[in-house]
Amino acid sequence: MILLQLFLSFLQIGLFSIGGGYAAIPLIQSQTVEIHGWLTQSQFMDLATIAEMTPGPIAVNGATFVGLRVAGIAGAAAATFGCILPSLILVSLLAFIYRKYRELPLLQGVLGSLRPAVVALISAAGLNMLLQVAFGSGRALALDQVQWAGLALFAAAFFALRRFKWSPILVMALCGAAGVALGLIGVF
User: Fold this and answer.
1) Which of 81, 82, 157, 184 is the most buried (most CB within 10 A)?
2) b or e along 146-159 (b: 16 or more beta carbons within 10 Å of the residue's beta carbon)?
3) 101, 124, 158: which is the final residue of a domain?
4) Could you give the CA distance from residue 132 to residue 12 in angstroms, rounded to a whole number?
5) Are 84 and 7 found together in one domain?
6) Could you tell me the CA-to-CA distances from 88 to 14, 59, 85, 92, 151 in Å, in that order?
7) Which pTM does this prediction carry?
8) CB under 8 Å to 13, separation ≥6 — which residues?
9) Residues 64 and 124 in one domain
10) By 3-state DSSP, what share of the chain in percent is helix, strand and coil, each rounded to 5?
């Protein structure tokens, strides 16, 4: 019975948390603290902290945390599946519609108009990361503020990805190791 309650509670959260993970936090609090009493307010604050700092969507992390705390591994699976099921259905439906109607000129026009926006968003994120690497958090675009070690690491990673076609995961791991090493010797 508890597994069904976990599934249904997080199914509601998955259905109604339009706007991303932060929109889900009040819904998770309502379900877990106020309605079911699975967590105290203090435990919920711990959940919110853990869900925000671990990789992945906040709602899914929260569902896994609550499910594990309430009913073990089976509870984590039930709550997580309930949380992701609405998105899974929606994405599957959109994929079906796309596959069926991808040749329509109207759909191609819509997708074609979205491409520049996606490229701009990705470019803005990349530029923001490059500025963060090169100038740190101050972003005073002065030559004496350039973090040369970070910029060199960025250039080496870019070169390894483009020239040698290394795996991005390998490059990220090597950059992380290099960053830790440079931090230990006081460069960063």
Assistant:
1) 82
2) ebebbeebbeebee
3) 101
4) 39
5) yes
6) 10, 14, 5, 6, 39
7) 0.62
8) 24, 27, 28, 31, 59, 63, 82, 83
9) no
10) 80, 0, 20
**pLDDT digit of tens for each residue in the chain (188 aa)?**
999 999 999 999 999 987 677 788 899 999 999 999 999 988 999 888 888 888 888 899 999 999 999 999 999 999 999 999 999 999 999 999 999 998 999 988 888 898 898 888 888 888 887 887 777 765 566 777 788 888 899 899 999 999 999 999 999 999 999 989 998 998 87
81 and 118 belong to one structural domain: no
Q: Nearest-5° angle of CA 84, CA 85, CA 91?
A: 90
Judge if 78 and 168 occupy the same domain. no
At 117, list the tokens.
């926006």
- In one-letter notation, the amino acid at residue 80 is T
Residue 161 tokens read as 């990805």
Please identify which residue in the block is written with the tokens 């990789």: 55
- On whether both 65 and 120 belong to a single domain, the answer is no
Domain total in the chain: 2
pLDDT of residue 139: 56
Range of the domain at 158: 108-184
